Amino acid sequence: QVQLVESGGGLVQPGGSLRLSCIASGSIYRVNIMGWYRQAPGQQRELVATITASGRIRYADSVEDRFTISRNNAKYTVYLEMTTLKPEDTAVYYCNADVRTSMWEGDMYWGQGTQVTVSS
C-alpha cells in the first residue's frame, strides 16, 4: 500500500508565499513522475506542475515564474514553492505520483489534498 501525505497549506495574503510538501510512503520500489494539481470550488482539477525522476519539469502557464517544483528522490518527497500568490491560486492542492511497487507493478496515487487560501 502506498500513501501520499501533503502538508504546508494555509491562509496567506496576496503577494505572500507558501511551501507545500508531499511525502510518499509504503511499499515503494521506485517513484517516477510526481506533481501537484489543484481544484478550486466549482472547477475541474488542473495541473500545476510536474517533475520527473530525472528532473524534467512542466508548469501550468498560470504559475510559471511564480511557483517552483522540486523533489528529493531519496526521500520520495516533492515540494511546491509558491510565491507572489494571488486570490485565484485559492484551491485544494493535491499531490500526485506514479509509484512502482515492483519492477512490473504500480499505479498513480493521490494525496488527500491541502487547502491553500489567498485572501486579505
Identify the notable features of this structure and list them briefly.
mainly beta; seven-stranded mixed sheet; 57% strand; four-stranded antiparallel sheet; 120 residues
How is this structure best described in words?
- The chain has 120 residues and is mainly beta.
- The protein is built from no helices and eleven strands.
- The chain has strands at 2-7, 10-12, 18-26, 30-39, 46-51, 57-59, 67-72, 77-82, 91-100, 106-110, 114-118.
- Strands 2, 4, 5, 6, 9, 10 and 11 form a seven-stranded mixed beta sheet that branches. A four-stranded antiparallel beta sheet has the order 1-3-8-7, with no helix packed on it.
- Strand 7 and strand 8 form a beta hairpin.
- The protein starts with a strand and ends with a strand.
Arithmetic mean of pLDDT: 97
Determine the oligomeric state from the structure.
Answer: single chain
Count of runs of 4 or more consecutive helical residues = 0
Distance between the termini: 40 Å
How much strand content do the residues show? over 45%
Residues in helices, as a percent range: under 10%
Largest sheet: 7 strands, mixed
Rg calc: 14 Å
Order of helices and strands: EEEEEEEEEEE
Number of strands: 11
- Low-pLDDT parts are none
By secondary-structure content and strand pairing, the structural class works out as: mainly beta
Shape: elongated
